[in-house]
C-alpha cells in the first residue's frame, strides 16, 4: 500500500513535526512535539528523538529508506549542522549526525525551511511544472528557495534563495543580520504590525496587534493598515524583481502567515511588480499563493531526501 517511504522532519522554533511520506506525497503517519526552544541542545535533540521514536514504533518504519530534515536556519548542509536563530541552544549543532545515529544509519538530507517549502511547492504546489521559480515564506521572518533549470538549487550550504536578507532600502532600518533595509525588516509579519502601530493604527477591542489583525483592518478600509501592507508589498516586489532579473525565474510563490492576508498583500504586490520587473525578460513574471500550506516543511523535506522524488517530480539536486 505504501511505497518509497521517507521520514520527514520539520523543525522550527515552536514545533518539531515528523511524518512518514510516501512516493506520491501522501502523509501516512504524523508525530509532533513542542520545541523546547529555551532549553539546552540535548533537550531540544531529545524532542527530535521522541518524534522519531514515535514514527519508528510504527510497522511502516521498515519501509523507510531515508530521512529528510527541513530546519529553521541558518543551516550548513555541507557540514550537517544547524544554528537556528530561534533555538539558541543549537549553535553548529551536528543534527545530521545525531539523526543518523538515532535512525540506525539511514541516509539523512538537511535543507533550510525556505528550501523545504520550495521543494514542496515544486513537487505538489503552485510551482509545479515551472523550471525556474522562487518560493518564499513570509511570516515571522522571510525565507525562500530557488528552482533553476528544473532543479532545486540549494547552494553549497543549503541557503541559496534566502531573499529575506536582500537589501531593498539602502538607508533603511538596521537588520539583526547586520545589514540594513532587508526585505525581512519591512515585509515580515511583526514589522508590518510595527509600522502600522508607529503610524497610528490601533488594534480592536481584543488588543490583537499581529499582522493578521492589521490585514483585517486593511480589508475594512483602514488607510494606515493598508499603507503598511503596501510598503511590505513594495519590498517583496523589489526583492522578487531583483531575483528574477538575476536568474530569470518565471513565477514567485508566496506562502506563510502573511500570505494569508490574500488580496490585501497580493494586489499591491502585483501592482508593484509592474514598477520593478521592467526588463523584457521578466515582465511576464507571475505571483501565486502557495498551495501546500502547513505540510510544506514535511513534504519538502521528503522531496529533498529521496532521489526518486527528485527524478520524477522535478529532478531535484542538493
From TrEMBL:
<dbReference type="InterPro" id="IPR000600">
    <property type="entry name" value="ROK"/>
</dbReference>
<protein>
    <submittedName>
        <fullName>ROK family protein</fullName>
    </submittedName>
</protein>
<dbReference type="Pfam" id="PF00480">
    <property type="entry name" value="ROK"/>
</dbReference>
<comment type="similarity">
    <text>Belongs to the ROK (NagC/XylR) family.</text>
</comment>
<dbReference type="InterPro" id="IPR043129">
    <property type="entry name" value="ATPase_NBD"/>
</dbReference>
<dbReference type="InterPro" id="IPR049874">
    <property type="entry name" value="ROK_cs"/>
</dbReference>
Amino acid at each position: 500500500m505504501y511505497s518509497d517511504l521517507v521520514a520527514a522532519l520539520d523543525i522550527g522554533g515552536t514545533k518539531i513535526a515528523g511524518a512518514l511520506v510516501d512516493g506520491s506525497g501522501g502523509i501516512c503517519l504524523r508525530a509532533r512535539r513542542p520545541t523546547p526552544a529555551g532549553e539546552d541542545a540535548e533537550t531540544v535533540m531529545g524532542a527530535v528523538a521522541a518524534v522519531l521514536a514515535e514514527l519508528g514504533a510504527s510497522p511502516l518504519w521498515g519501509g523507510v529508506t531515508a530521512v529528510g530534515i527541513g530546519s529553521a536556519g541558518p543551516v550548513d548542509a555541507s557540514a550537517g549542522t544547524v544554528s537556528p536563530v530561534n533555538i539558541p541552544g543549537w549553535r553548529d549543532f551536528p543534527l545530521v549526525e545525531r539523526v543518523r545515529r538515532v535512525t540506525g544509519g539511514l541516509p539523512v538530507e538537511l535543507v533550510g525551511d525556505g528550501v523545504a517549502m520550495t521543494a514542496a511547492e515544486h513537487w505538489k504546489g503552485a510551482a509545479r511544472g515551472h523550471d525556474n521559480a522562487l518560493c518564499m515564506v513570509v511570516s515571522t521572518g522571510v525565507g525562500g528557495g530557488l528552482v533553476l533549470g528544473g532543479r532545486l538549487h540549494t547552494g553549497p550550504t543549503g541557503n541559496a534563495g534566502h531573499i529575506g536578507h536582500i537589501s531593498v532600502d539602502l538607508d533603511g532600518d538596521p537588520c539583526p543580520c547586520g545589514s540594513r533595509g532587508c526585505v525581512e525588516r519591512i515585509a515580515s509579519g511583526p514589522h508590518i504590525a510595527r509600522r502600522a502601530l508607529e503610524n497610528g493604527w490601533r488594534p480592536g477591542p481584543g488588543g490583537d496587534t499581529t499582522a493578521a489583525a492589521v490585514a483585517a483592518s486593511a480589508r475594512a478600509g483602514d488607510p494606515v493598515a493598508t499603507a503598511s501592507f503596501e510598503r511590505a508589498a513594495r519590498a517583496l516586489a523589489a526583492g522578487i524583481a531583483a531575483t528574477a532579473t538575476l536568474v530569470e525565474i518565471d513565477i514567485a510563490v508566496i506562502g506563510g502567515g502573511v500570505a494569508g492576508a490574500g488580496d490585501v498583500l497580493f494586489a499591491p504586490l502585483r501592482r508593484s511588480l509592474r514598477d520593478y520587473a521592467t526588463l523584457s525578460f521578466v515582465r511576464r513574471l507571475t505571483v501565486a499563493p502557495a498551495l501546500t500550506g502547513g505540510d510544506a516543511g514535511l513534504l519538502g523535506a521528503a522531496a529533498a531526501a529521496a532521489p526518486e522524488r527528485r527524478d520524477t517530480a522535478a529532478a531535484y539536486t542538493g
